[in-house]
Structure to design on (341 residues):
């Protein structure tokens, strides 16, 4: 993506690289939409609305056991709330790197349930969202990797109390944040 | 050619909302589950079986329970069971309930009713898609006592 500044506005140049921008944006928004629907399916009944669709309980026994146990123990409720939050963040392009990290284990459990617990290994090369939720998430993580690089640093001495002041920069743009440091 | 970043972001949000709507519609109208308005649809297996038990035993409406919680393809290995027929409510003493995955097992003693003596029974229910799709029944010899013995469990962990 190439940006130029003109009259205090930022522009994206529509060139060959723009296709990559479109693909990443498609992955972000589609994954976000899928997570919103999946999460709202459980959350809506809490407010008196009906389900969007019946919660699937899996095909094979181990999948049944895992999903029913998650529902019975209430763990599914936490998962679905986070799905809604992650989905909204992705669709509205806010806190995207954080949302992707929160969404990754959710997607991995969906992936594991679909592929390993239901023996659907042929789906690894399909377009089912049960596998593409992980593929999209990983591709998006690479697209936003510059925000993860500080986290991946090999040697990381402990910070200082004054680092807490950096929290005040999270709602600023990158330029404002770097100039205020 | 270039596009303003704020415009692109706004269009992306609209696209995300459209995708959300399309996925919502796709999931809500999936033929796998669309059209079945049974009371057990979307419920946990033990809730499905509890619904059946409540209707058939507590209300005595076995035929209605079969209509609501079973389906035409259901294989019931106890087709003559009293809980499939309408009549006086059936009292029972529940000893144990085990729910694992889509399977629910109930060990209970059915009190004398409708001309039948007290009988210890174990019912194995298999559910799918909000319905009971199979039921096996292990039925003991009718009891010598006129009524069921009290539950062996100090605190019954029920279906609800």
């Amino acid at each position: 993506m190439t940006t130029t500044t003109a009259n205090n506005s930022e522009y994206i140049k529509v060139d060959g690289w723009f296709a990559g921008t479109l693909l990443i944006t498609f992955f972000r928004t589609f994954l976000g939409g899928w997570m919103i629907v999946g999460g709202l399916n459980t959350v809506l009944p809490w407010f008196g609305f009906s389900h969007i669709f019946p919660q699937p309980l899996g095909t094979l026994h181990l999948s049944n056991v895992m999903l029913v146990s998650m529902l019975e123990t209430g763990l599914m409720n936490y998962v679905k709330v986070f799905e809604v939050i992650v989905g909204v963040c992705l669709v509205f392009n806010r806190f995207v790197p954080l949302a992707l990290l929160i969404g990754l284990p959710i997607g991995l459990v969906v992936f594991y349930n679909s592929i390993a617990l239901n023996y659907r290994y042929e789906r690894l090369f399909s377009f089912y969202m049960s596998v593409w939720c992980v593929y999209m998430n990983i591709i998006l993580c690479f697209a936003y990797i510059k925000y993860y690089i500080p986290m991946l640093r090999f040697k990381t001495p402990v910070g200082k109390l004054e680092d807490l002041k950096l929290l005040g920069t999270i709602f600023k743009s990158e330029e404002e944040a770097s100039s205020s440091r | 050619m270039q596009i303003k970043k704020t415009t692109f972001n706004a269009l992306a949000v609209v696209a995300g909302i459209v995708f959300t709507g399309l996925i919502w519609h796709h999931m809500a109208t999936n033929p796998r589950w669309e059209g079945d308005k049974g009371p057990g649809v979307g419920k946990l297996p033990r809730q499905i079986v509890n619904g059946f038990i409540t209707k058939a035993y507590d209300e005595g409406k076995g035929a209605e329970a079969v209509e609501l919680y079973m389906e035409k393809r259901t294989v019931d290995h106890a087709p003559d069971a009293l809980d499939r027929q309408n009549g006086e409510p059936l009292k029972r003493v529940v000893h144990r309930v085990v729910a694992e995955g889509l399977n629910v097992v109930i060990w209970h003693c059915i009190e004398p009713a409708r001309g039948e003596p007290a009988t210890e029974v174990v019912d194995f229910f298999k559910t799918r898609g909000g319905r009971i799709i199979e039921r096996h029944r292990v039925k003991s010899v009718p009891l010598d006592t006129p009524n069921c013995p009290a539950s062996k469990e100090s605190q019954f962990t029920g279906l609800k």
Notes: Chain B touches chain A through 34 residues (CB under 8 Å). Chain B has a mean pLDDT of 89. The first helix of chain B runs from residue 5 to 28. The longest strand of chain B covers residues 119-128.
